[in-house]
Design brief:
Helix content is 43%, strand content 20%. By secondary structure, the protein is of the alpha/beta class. The protein has 2 domains: 3-7 and 14-149 and 299-324, 3-Layer(aba) Sandwich (Rossmann fold); 152-297 and 329-349, 3-Layer(aba) Sandwich (Rossmann fold), CATH 3.40.50.2300. The structure holds alpha-L-arabinofuranose (AHR). Alpha-L-arabinofuranose is lined by residues 55-56, 58-59, 133-134, 190, 217, 243, 275-276, 297.
C-alpha cells in the first residue's frame, strides 16, 4: 500500500509534466515544476492546499507557515489555491486536486457547512483530507482524517472574562457596558465560536449587546461597521472585533468620529477588544491601549500539518482533533490572570 502510494505519487507528478508539455502551458506553471530527475529521486509528496483567501494578517501568516513547511527541500510539492473567500472556489480546488491525484488534501474551510459531497469525492479517490483552522460540519466524521486549529469559543470566553475582571477592578457596573460585535465571516467556526462566547458572557454579566454586524475579518468592513455603529448607538463603549484587521478599521473610524479608543470608559473612551495578535501593528496598538485586550489566535499550522502527514506516511494515526494552546494579551498590568471554567490562564502583559 505504502510503496504503491509512492509509485502513484511519482506517476502523478510525471503525468502532470506530460499534460503541461502537451498543452504548452504558461511560464508560471513550468517554473513550478521540479525537473524530472529531481522528482524521481526525491519522490515528492504532493499536497493540495485550499486556503480561504488573504483577508487578514492572520491568514497571510498562516499561508506563509504552510508554504515554508511544505518545500521541495523537505520532500513536498505544495499546490496552493487561494479561494478568495468563496466556498465554490474551494470546492473547485478540491476537485482539481483529486484529478491531479495529490497524496493529501489540506482544507482551510471558509465556512462550516456544505462539504459533505466534495469530501466524499476525496474519500472515494482514497485521498486523506486534513482540515486546518476552521472546522467542517459534516454528517460523517470519517470524511476527513483530522483537524488542527483553535478553540474559538475559548478565545472568546477568555476575552470576555478579561473584560468582566477589568470592569470589576475599575468598579464599572455591568449595566454601563454597551457592547457591539463586529463579526467575522458568517458561518465560519471562528465567527460562530467568538460570537457565541460573547453572547454567553453578555447574558451572564448583564451587559447590553447593542448590535451584531458582519465585518468579514477585513479592515475596510471593520471601519464601515464602526462608523455606522457610532452613529446609531450613542451609548456604545465597547467594540468587540472578531479579528485584529477589523479592529484596525474600528480604530480608524473611532478617530474619524473624533472619539478616543482606550480603556478609560469613564472619560468617554471606547474600548476595543479583538483576536489574533499576529502583527506588530496589533501589538503596538495594545501597548498604547488603543486595543485593550487581544485573544491570541495562532496561525502557525504548517509544521503541525506536516507532522500529521509524516505520521500518516509512517502509518501512525493522528489525533482526530488537535486544539492549539493560545494566550491572551493586554497592557493592563493589574490583571495578570483570568479563570475560565475553573482553569487559570495567565494574561501576557505587553510592556510599554
Ligand atoms: O479562522 C481564523 C480567523 O480567520 C482569524 O482570526 C482571522 O484573522 C482570519 O481571517
Amino acid at each position: 500500500m505504502h510503496s504503491l502510494k509512492k509509485l502513484n505519487r511519482i506517476t502523478a507528478v510525471f503525468g502532470l509534466i506530460a499534460v503541461l508539455l502537451a498543452g504548452g502551458c504558461g511560464v508560471s506553471y513550468e517554473e513550478d515544476l521540479p525537473d524530472p530527475g529531481q522528482v524521481g529521486s526525491e519522490e515528492l509528496i504532493t499536497v493540495g492546499f485550499s486556503q480561504v483567501g488573504a483577508e487578514s494578517d492572520w491568514r497571510k501568516a498562516n499561508t506563509e507557515s504552510m508554504q515554508s513547511a511544505f518545500t521541495r527541500e523537505r520532500g513536498y510539492e505544495l499546490i496552493f489555491e487561494d479561494a478568495q473567500q468563496k466556498q465554490s472556489n474551494q470546492i473547485t480546488a478540491i476537485r482539481t486536486f483529486i484529478q491531479r491525484e495529490v497524496d493529501y488534501i489540506v482544507l482551510a474551510p471558509v465556512t462550516e457547512d456544505g462539504w459533505d459531497t466534495v469530501l466524499a469525492e476525496a474519500r472515494d479517490a482514497n485521498i486523506p483530507v486534513i482540515i486546518v483552522d476552521r472546522q467542517v460540519a459534516v454528517k460523517d466524521k470519517d470524511l476527513f482524517t483530522c483537524w488542527i486549529g483553535s478553540d474559538f469559543e475559548l478565545e472568546a470566553k477568555k476575552a470576555c472574562t478579561w473584560l468582566e475582571d477589568y470592569c470589576r477592578m475599575k468598579r464599572i457596573s455591568a449595566n454601563d457596558i454597551y457592547i457591539a460585535d463586529i463579526q467575522g465571516t458568517i458561518g465560519s467556526s471562528a465567527q460562530i465560536g467568538r460570537s457565541k462566547g460573547l453572547k454567553e458572557a453578555v447574558r451572564k454579566n448583564g451587559w447590553h449587546l447593542v448590535d451584531e454586524v458582519p465585518g468579514e475579518y477585513t479592515q475596510a468592513k471593520g471601519r464601515e461597521a464602526t462608523a455606522r455603529l457610532l452613529q446609531s448607538h450613542k451609548d456604545l463603549n465597547v467594540i468587540y472585533c472578531e479579528n485584529d484587521n477589523e479592529a484596525f478599521g474600528a480604530l480608524e473610524a473611532i478617530e474619524a468620529a473624533g472619539r478616543k479608543a482606550g480603556g478609560n470608559l469613564r472619560a468617554g473612551e471606547i474600548m476595543v477588544i479583538s483576536f489574533d495578535g499576529v502583527s506588530e501593528l496589533a501589538i503596538d496598538d495594545l501597548r498604547n491601549d488603543s486595543i485593550s485586550c487581544i485573544g491570541e489566535c495562532n496561525p502557525l499550522h504548517g509544521p503541525r500539518v506536516r507532522k500529521v502527514i509524516d505520521d500518516l506516511e509512517n502509518n501512525i494515526v493522528p489525533e482526530k482533533y488537535e486544539y492549539v494552546d493560545e494566550d491572551i494579551f493586554s497592557a493592563f498590568e493589574d490583571l495578570t490572570e483570568i479563570t475560565v471554567e475553573g482553569k487559570n490562564y495567565p494574561v501576557k502583559i505587553i510592556g510599554k
